[in-house]
Design the sequence.
């Protein structure tokens, strides 16, 4: 993998963030390479929930049909007490059909390993690739680009690099970018993918702690598979046993099931729930995205989704700058827009972890906006309900679905009954006016070509 030519973008990390960014860049004709320190894509169900806004992003990236076929809706929770079903528990607040102008009203479950397979296939369909077994040892940069040195002795030169290498990001540490945050819970958690004979798959099975203890356990049937995702909480100071024998014993101790009813134990991991935000999302020509930039409690189902949306925000901006369609200063808006969003989502996911908030409309992420961004320009004396920085709703106007008009890597000019809108490639309004007056000046700032 010794490159003599200079890549446009080096993406470090082949999780959902890196793969989504690779897809977005590939469809724009950007020469990008995704590298992954592992020999394969990461295993395990991990972040299994895709929120409505991410589903819209996936539609634009060309993977929605595969994601829909691979997953399913979330089941209702079933509370168990002393081996008896004692009540249903809705995991998510219901949404009204068409809420906030979306065809999606709730999260869609796809195990993360399958999500990544689908994204990788789409990346390769577009001519991109993943280089496995490439661990970054150090990063150097100058005014013209970035040089990545791998532990194998290989090097890659790129005009820009993106750290999408997770919460323990080696690139972030190499850049000296700190993270500010907290340990949310001293009690360690275990998550594993297992198979269980005879357990009904129509429920998300919840086994509450006994008394005031911390011995919570839940078993969620993973859509599109024969597996269950096990999540368990342990007393502070415990080292969870990740062995198949340990997990079987755990199930036997905390549920009405016998240990031998756990027929298979696949991937397993333990973690301590944390919330942390990188002090900055950019250092020169290197950007942070996904868990490298923000670490969430899994309670709200926000981490993977916020990460994919980082990629969706950064992709079109890198493409415009590299293609000579926008000044380099456009890249400054990535941190300007995404860091406040990440901070807000961290607050929400932390509140859900502490049972201070429900999984409701905010978790669906359809209302996230960039109204305060320097890219958002309002020229109407009386703004309408759709304002610069807002996500364009998935509506049908005069028989035409707006999302069909917006799909693809370009800016789109829309004329609706309450104004004229220039919509960014990521589906958010950039400029709004009562007429087209002033639009040319805005478009000239970024050499915008519209449809």
Sequence:
């Amino acid at each position: 993998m010794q490159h003599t030519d200079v890549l446009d973008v080096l993406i470090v990390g082949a999780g959902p963030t890196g793969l989504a960014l690779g897809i977005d860049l590939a469809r724009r004709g950007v020469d990008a390479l995704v590298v992954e320190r592992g020999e394969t894509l990461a295993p395990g169900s991990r972040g299994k929930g895709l929120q409505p806004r991410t589903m819209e992003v996936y539609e634009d990236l060309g993977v929605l049909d595969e994601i829909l076929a691979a997953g399913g809706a979330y089941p209702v929770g079933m509370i168990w007490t002393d081996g008896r079903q004692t009540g249903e528990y809705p995991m998510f607040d219901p949404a009204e059909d068409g809420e906030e102008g979306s065809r999606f009203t709730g999260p869609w479950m796809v195990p993360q390993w399958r999500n990544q397979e689908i994204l990788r296939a789409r990346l390769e369909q577009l001519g991109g690739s993943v280089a496995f077994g490439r661990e970054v040892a150090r990063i150097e940069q100058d005014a013209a680009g970035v040089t990545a040195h791998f532990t194998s002795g290989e090097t890659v030169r790129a005009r820009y690099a993106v750290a999408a290498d997770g919460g323990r990001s080696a690139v972030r540490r190499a850049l000296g970018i700190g993270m500010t945050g907290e340990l949310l819970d001293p009690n360690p958690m275990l998550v594993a993918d297992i198979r269980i004979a005879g357990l009904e798959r129509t429920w998300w099975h919840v086994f509450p702690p006994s008394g005031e203890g911390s011995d919570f356990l839940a078993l969620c049937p993973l859509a599109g598979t024969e597996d269950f995702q096990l999540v368990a909480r342990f007393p502070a100071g415990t080292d969870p046993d990740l062995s198949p024998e340990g997990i079987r014993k755990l199930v036997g101790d905390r549920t009405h099931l016998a240990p031998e009813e756990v027929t298979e134990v696949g991937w397993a991991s333990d973690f301590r729930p944390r919330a942390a935000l990188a002090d900055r999302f950019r250092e020169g020509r290197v950007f942070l995205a996904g868990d490298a930039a923000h670490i969430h409690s899994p309670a709200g189902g926000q981490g993977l989704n916020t990460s994919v949306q980082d990629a969706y925000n950064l992709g079109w901006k890198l493409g415009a700058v590299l293609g000579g369609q926008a000044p380099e200063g456009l890249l400054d808006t990535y941190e300007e827009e995404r860091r406040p969003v990440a901070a807000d989502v961290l607050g929400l996911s932390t509140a859900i972890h502490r049972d201070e908030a429900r999984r409701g409309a905010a978790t669906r992420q359809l209302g996230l906006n960039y109204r305060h961004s320097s890219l958002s320009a309002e020229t109407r004396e009386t703004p309408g309900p759709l304002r610069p920085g807002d996500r364009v709703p998935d509506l049908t106007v005069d028989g035409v679905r707006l999302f069909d008009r917006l799909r693809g890597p370009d800016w789109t000019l829309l004329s609706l009954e309450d104004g004229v809108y220039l919509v960014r490639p990521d589906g958010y309004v950039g400029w709004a006016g009562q007429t087209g007056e002033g639009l040319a000046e805005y478009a000239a700032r970024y050499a915008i070509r519209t449809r």
Remarks:
- The chain has a mean pLDDT of 93.
